[in-house]
Structure formats: structure tokens, C-alpha cells
């Protein structure tokens, strides 16, 4: 049972340490061992994301008050550099935990996009050219009736609320959901994927069904001849609410759309950290049960 922040931090560190040990050989570090191990640094970053400490300055400032948990606090520049170097390690840890999660074995999923602005609209003319080199573009977000400069991240979420997969680099903001979603779904097999009307395409649905065994289900537009029975359409729309809930968690609790990165690599490091933190919280939830997770939400998630 988790009763305070120290308990939550211990749980998170133990999970990271146990899972990172399985992939640590892929991330050798030259020179003597750091006083702050890779597992400790990753745990500090993941716990910080749960708490809403999403800048290095606020994160390290807060951890300086908890030196009984992590005695050695790296400098801001060293922390930032090491987290970027370990960004794929975060994702591998997430993958290891996914294999342990029963909810991640669900073959019924939802797919949707989440806009990720990287530079405020009025600052784009003076923005670093690196963003454009790495595919950031202007794109229209119809749900918010606004234009952003950045990316659209595709998310594949199980009906249990677990982020099964995601795609960023292939989805700049001007790429349609249908194109980016197809590229993500064709990496999977034997799935039922529910999507909104932005993913409607008979040729794409047929290609996924025949090539991957993926059934892409959408509610037809009102002007289409073939319509689903009202109960089926209502069921699909109800199921889609799970990905809306996950998107809201990522935006409101993990500040996913507040970009503090100055480079594409830094953005990826932050995204991997946030998505891994989300998965690990669900994993702890399954280990301890829903009653205990209420304590975790109070301790880890910002109010």
C-alpha cells in the first residue's frame, strides 16, 4: 500500500531499476560510474513528470528537498544531457512494462491524434530551423479551430487505457490523420481499431484488413450511403471516449502540449519520459488495486 510520496518514489524506482537492468547493456557509458545512476536519473525524471515538474529547473529544485530519496542531484545541464542520451531507454522500459501489463494484451484499441505545438504561433518566424528540418510544419487542428506549428502524435490506446504505441516523427502537423494512422497501424497485426471520421477510407481499411488483419472501424459520415445501425454507431462512439480520456490525462496531468524543448531530440526525450510515466502509473495501479491508486493520484498527479 502506498501512503506517501516516499512510498510512491520507492515503487517507481524499483520498477525502473528492475526493468532497466534488462536493457542497460544497450546504453554503455564511458568513464567512471556516475554518483547518480541511470536508474536513479530515470526514476527522478518519471516521478517528476507525474508531479508536473516538467522543466529541469523545477524538477531539480524539487528533488533538492528530497535528498533522502536521491542523495546526488545532477546539475541542470548534465541532467538534460543524460536524459536525452537515455531517451530510448525510457521507451524500452515502457516496452518491458507493457509486456507485463495484462491490459496491454487487449486486441481492441482506439486510434487518434494529439496536436503537439513546438513553437508559439507568433514566434515561428524566428524559430530554429531544426524544427523544420525534422518535419515540423503548420497544420490545422479542426477540433480547436486553430493552426499550430509542430506535429500531430498518433496514439494507439487499448480499451483499458494503456498506450500501446505512438508515432511522432512521421506525423508533422500537415499530414492527415488517415495517412499517419495508416503508417502506425500497419506496424501491428490482428487488431480491432476504432477511429473517428478523419480515418474513413475504404481502400485503407481494406489494405489493413488484408495485409495485417487489422479491422479499422469508423462511423460513416452523414452523407455516405452505407450507414451503421444506430446501436452500433453509438457503441463505437462510446468506446472512443477512452482515447479522449487518455489524451486529457496526457494534456492536463502530464502537460504534453507544453513544450520546453529547444531541439527535436529534446522534444522526443520529454515525450518518451511522459508516456513511460503514464504507463508505469497504470502498472502500479494494477499491482496495488484501484483503491490504492487513489492514493497515488493524490501523491503523484498535480491537482
The averaged pLDDT comes out at 86
Query: From the helix content, strand content and strand pairing, which structural class follows?
Result: alpha/beta
The percentage of residues in β strands lies in 5-15%
Strand and helix order = HHHHHEHEEEHEHEHHHH
Number of strands: 6
Main sheet characteristics: 6 strands, mixed
Helical percent range?
40-55%
Provide the low-confidence segments as ranges: 291-303
> Radius of gyration, Cα only, in angstroms?
20 Å
Distance between the termini: 21 Å
Shape estimate: globular
- Helix tally? 12
Characterise this structure.
By secondary structure, the chain is α/β, with parallel strands linked by helices. The chain has twelve helices and six strands. Strands 1, 2, 3, 4, 5 and 6 form a six-stranded mixed beta sheet that branches. α1 packs across α2 (38-51), α2 (38-51) crosses α11 and α11 (264-288) packs antiparallel against α12. It is globular and about 65 Å long.
